[in-house]
Design goal:
With 428 residues, the protein is α/β, with parallel strands linked by helices. It folds into three domains: 3-119, 2-Layer Sandwich (Gyrase A, domain 2); 126-209 and 362-409, Four Helix Bundle (Hemerythrin (Met), subunit A) (Up-down Bundle), CATH 1.20.120.430; 213-354, P-loop containing nucleotide triphosphate hydrolases (Rossmann fold, 3-Layer(aba) Sandwich), CATH 3.40.50. Helices cover 46% and strands 16% of the residues. Strands 3-4-5-2-1-6 form a six-stranded mixed β-sheet. Strands 8-9-7-10-11 form a five-stranded mixed β-sheet, sandwiched between helices. The longest helix is centred in the middle third of the chain and has 30 residues, at 183-212. The protein is flat and about 80 Å long.
Amino acid sequence: MDTVYALATAQGKAGVAVVRVSGPCAFDACDQICGDVPEPRRAALRVLRDGNGERLDQALVLTFAEKQSFTGEETVEFHLHGSAAVVAAVLDRLGRIEGLRLAEPGEFTRRALENGRLDLARVEGLADLIDAETEAQRKQALRVFSGALGEKCERWRGLLIRAVALLEATIDFADEEVPVDVSPEVTGLVRQVSTALEQEIAGSRVSERIRIGFEVAIIGAPNVGKSTLLNSLAGREAAITSEYAGTTRDVIEVRMDLAGLPVTLLDTAGLRETADAIESIGIARARARADAADLRVFLVEAGQEPEMEPRADDIVVWAKADLLGDAGNAVSGKTGLGVGALVERIGQALSARVANAGIATRARHRQAMERGLLALQAALDILPRGESVAEVAAEELRIAIRALDSLVGRIDVEMVLDEIFASFCLGK
């Protein structure tokens, strides 16, 4: 491989900037810039010089030997003073060393994958960790990055390999009397993995929502106070409010951290019958987004009924609590009355779902597990038919194993790499 380098920290002025170099010429580059190569994994203060011996900066230098670094290659990190001029000078110096080139987006992580330092699921976990905005996202991404999903896959894979081996023994000795009937053990192993996959698939949709965010739609009649409530929840004037009904024509979205969860609040057009063509479009969009939302908050005038049928876990509250004598189960975005209680109810409703979240966080993970589960269900249908179809059952188990292998990147990895690494910065 080429030796690559890049700024590993964010662009702009900072106290410290880290430039990373990885590949077979990394130590040679360090020697040319520093005059020597510090002992691996021991920080050393060095003066960095250009090709003419002129001083560039004084930096903390860290080196990592092959198989001991993030990428699995010889790696050097220069911890520089974080000015744009210093960083530019050091990058220019590295670019003039033969055998070095600027890294592509995500190339350091891609090398870690290719060198066996990470599996594909851990790479995706790292991408999610970098993008994490809330505490729930951080915890979930860290679990995936730490290898929890890969460990599960490895256990399932081991059980299925054992099942295949037992069936293969039956096939190999088909003409002889096999002293032990292996079908009960094989069936037990397959059922064990099937049950585990069903549970993980069921929890994966919640995990996906944690990763990309929950949607909470505020629904109600025109002029009931939806936009005012949205502004109160967001802490800013995100939506236009007025005394005229039908002001909101399109769905307005506000992203926020609610109880540690990523939530997008949706302010929708007031639901009513109207002859206004533009407002009708807004109402149709409001109904569609409300149907697709993870949770709906119905804002209802006292004595009125919700404009749509609430689902079991939807929240229904009285609007304009400031005008009601009894403010119980009521909210006012104008005065803030009941807003705190509403936020708590939304947080509790979403947190209850998070409790059932699995480790798999992406549609790709879920689809791989669904393919594996289908193959296992086919094997369970075949197994009772006896030894004559053992080879067919074994092939279904191999299909399931390949599906799990694709989940962690043992096979079919190229088709997803470009999409994953497109989200990475140069220094990662």
